[in-house]
Design goal:
The structure holds 2 protein chains of 2 kinds. Chain A is mainly β. Chain A is built from no helices and 9 strands. In chain A, strands 1-9-8-3-4 form a 5-stranded mixed β-sheet, with no helix packed on it. In chain A, strands 2-7-6-5 form a 4-stranded antiparallel β-sheet, with no helix packed on it. In chain B, about 0% of the residues lie in helices and about 55% in strands. The chains are: A mainly beta, B mainly beta. The interface between A and B is medium-sized, with 28 and 29 residues.
């Protein structure tokens, strides 16, 4: 499972665009990149997943450069309700050797009024 | 379609007692993961069950154990409870042996050891 590195915390203001970058230098050819969001006292929830270039859904965009050694989660015009911890996972692949959904410490985003 | 359900929502136990936490995955999902999340900290991987078998476990002592039943629901048992076991315990389910898929989480069980 590719190791990931994210900033521990970020602050932003309402209405701003927030970009959270995740480094994954050892990403494998078949690995996808997945981001989860977790609010306090709740389980994480899936935000977005991508393999290369750009993916966009109603919640966020995910930018992946050609070398795929990093990815950037972009949250447009954040609101107070976007305050949460954001986790980047790479290669959440299930195989006989127990590749697991192992979460790193994530990025704690605080949106300020 | 029902999501992942966990019970109980809250559990208060005394140090030294045993706690049993339950998880029902989404229908059709055969893999169940358990995580421990202490207050303000990240998710620590505990156990992974798939098709009724324990496939892997995280760096936790043997007093953390569990099982998966034929209907793919799962139980987490924590014996000889210690104060530091107080945490939110989360269960997640994924479809069987799919690559690059999404994990679906329950709302968790808040275990408090006093």
């Amino acid at each position: 499972l590719a190791k990931t590195t994210q900033p521990i915390s970020m602050d932003s203001y309402e209405g701003q665009e927030v970009n959270i970058t995740c480094s994954h230098n050892n990403i494998a050819t078949n690995d996808y990149i997945t981001w989860y969001q977790q609010f306090p006292s709740q389980g994480p929830r899936f935000i977005i997943q991508g393999y290369k270039t750009k993916v966009t859904n109603e919640v966020a965009s995910l930018f992946i450069p050609a070398d795929r050694k990093s990815s950037t989660l972009s949250l447009p015009r954040v609101s107070l309700s976007d305050t949460a911890v954001y986790y980047c996972l790479v290669g959440a692949r299930v195989d006989n050797y127990g590749q697991n959904f192992v979460f790193g410490p994530g990025t704690r985003l605080s949106v300020l009024p | 379609e029902a999501g992942v359900t966990q019970s109980p929502t809250h559990l208060i136990k005394t140090r030294g007692q045993q706690a049993t936490l339950r998880c029902s995955p989404i229908s059709g999902h055969t893999s169940v993961y358990w995580y421990q999340q202490a207050l303000g900290l990240g998710l620590q991987f505990l156990l992974w069950y798939d098709e009724g078998e324990e496939r892997n476990r995280g760096n936790f002592p043997p007093r953390f154990s569990g099982r998966q039943f034929p209907n793919y629901s799962s139980e987490l048992n924590v014996n000889a409870l210690e104060l530091e076991d107080s945490a939110l315990y989360l269960c997640a389910s994924i479809p069987a042996r799919q690559t690059n898929t999404e994990a679906f989480f329950g709302q968790g069980t808040r275990l408090t050891v006093v």
